Amino acid sequence: MPSQGERALQAHLDTQERADSFYSRQVHSALTPPMRDFIGRQSMMFISTAGRTGHCDASFRAGPPGFVTVLDDGTLTYPEYRGNGVLASAGNIMENPHIGLLFMDFTHHHIGLHINGTAAVVAAGDPRAAHARIPLDTAPGRKPELWIYITVQEAYVHCSKHIPHLEPALRPRRDSDQRPKDGDYFTAPSAAPSPAQPSAAWT
Asked: In 3D, which of 164, 138, 156 has the Cα closest to residue 100?
């Protein structure tokens, strides 16, 4: 459903007709079969959460294609692995279940998929006992500490107009011997050297 803020700006900029067309044609209350297939091919997503007081957090998740599992047309899940111990996204979900996901295909079809819904944090355990569709090894060598279950409220396209094209690197480029450790990367002035060349081509 459109927010009051959306409607106010649409009225101000006279875009109500275009917005209504988008809502009626593109916004779905459940995942369509092409959306489910699209998610199964993606190896990354961006997530947004907010705590009880509205303070926001944006984050990134990645894994082998299929690391986000579509359980049915209204539910999907993804694993949370060991990280820096802050657990900002999962912590926000504990206070405020609203979540936004953005999947982006930068390399082939240059299209995006927005999913908004509500999330729940589930203890690691073994959710595959209840959901056989979850892959046995979502990320080889890594064991989930938690699972995030998402109930879809709306899903809609992100158009291709301004999505850049990226060429996947033949192998990951880390430059581990030339840059600070992650924890120090943004803390010391001029600590991070500028890369000699980009590892992906933007067009």
From this structure: 156
Strands of the sheet with 69-72, listed across from one edge: 56-62, 44-50, 98-104, 112-123, 146-158, 75-80, 69-72
Secondary structure of residue 40 in the 3-state scheme: helix
Q: Give the model confidence (pLDDT) of 67-100 as tens digits.
A: 999 999 999 999 998 888 889 999 999 999 999 9
Classify residue 184 by its DSSP letter.
G
Q: Which amino acid is at 116?
A: N
Per-residue pLDDT reduced to its tens digit, 131-169: 656 666 666 677 888 899 999 999 999 988 888 888 877
For the chain, state the CA radius of gyration: 19
Distances (CA, A) of 192 to 108, 187, 196: 31, 10, 12
Report how far residue 18's alpha carbon sits from residue 21's, in angstroms, rounded to the nearest whole number.
5
Q: So where are the chain's domains? A: 1-28, 31-158
**What dotted CATH number matches 31-158?**
2.30.110.10
Collapse the DSSP code of 171 into the 3-class scheme (helix H, G, I; strand E, B; otherwise coil) and give the result.
Answer: coil
